[in-house]
Amino acid sequence: MILTVTPNPSLDRTYELPDLVRGTVLRATADRVDPGGKGVNVSRAVAAAGHRTVAVAPMGGPEGALLARLLGEHGIEAAGVPVTGSTRINVTLVEPDSTLTKINATGPELSAAEAEDVLEAVRTRSASADWIACCGSLPRGLPPQWYAELVARSHRAGARIALDTSGAALTAALREGPDVIKPNAQELAEAVGRPLATVGDALKAAEELRERGAGAVLASLGADGQLLVEASGAYFATARVATVRSNVGAGDASLAGFLTAGGQGPGALVSAVAHGAAAVQLAGSLMPTPADLDPSAVALSTDVPRDRPLTEPAP
């Protein structure tokens, strides 16, 4: 069972447009609403793969009630923590060439008591969890050390933690030794304080974060592939993708694939890349099912191509 923690969940509304023209009335060709937030997306991918998952998240207002209902419709056990503020609504606009325009709302401000309630919900639900995936930005009211506290408490209870966050929250949590962290290239560059121009640069940055406390680093390098650096060694994998339709939630699908495949080793990396490649070929923030996956399209190497330039260098 994978338990996910999403401190700032959302309802994700996606509109597909024939064209995006400012200052006009636009008519969508298709639209959908999905439960959102990075941890929620991980739960959706885990459920789509046929595994049990519990989603812990603060939920408030009618938006929170709709979020809980949608989670249930996706086969996810919703462990909603009542909060005073309303759950946020995010909007994604998709153009025919797959260009995305995203509008993310701020979300509610959590009180100290509500923040503690979320931690307590994790404790009471985590006994049977194989992994706890803590994902996304922190809402207003939660200090950067909140994830560090969650990691520390979960480790004392014997749980394994996968952490997907950035900035001060990631830096603070490293000292508590999360078992896996999952930065993208930009987050990796920010964490080490220098730009990344090659895969080798990303490898050195991942090794540095392991020295600072992370048990393993699963780094998403966009179209260039993914890098796994752990105690057993470093692995690099890429996948063929025919058409990119939407990259919303692709990184979350990758983390779900990694954890459901055991959360370590080259086999888990292949699963992560296969899930991410499948997700970008689906509309909106749809999560791949086993029928969408093509592990044979993944190329795995234990010889990391250090000199390969990144398609999109991280500043």
UniProtKB/TrEMBL annotation:
Residues 294-315 are annotated as: Disordered. Keywords: ATP-binding, Kinase, Nucleotide-binding, Transferase. Its EC number is 2.7.1.56. It holds the Pfam family PfkB. It is an enzyme of class 2 (transferase). Residues 21-286 form the Carbohydrate kinase PfkB domain. Residues 304-315 have a biased composition (Basic and acidic residues). GO terms for molecular function: 1-phosphofructokinase activity. Belongs to the carbohydrate kinase PfkB family. NCBIfam families: 1-PFK, pfkB. This is 1-phosphofructokinase. The lineage of its organism: Bacteria, Bacillati, Actinomycetota, Actinomycetes, Kitasatosporales.
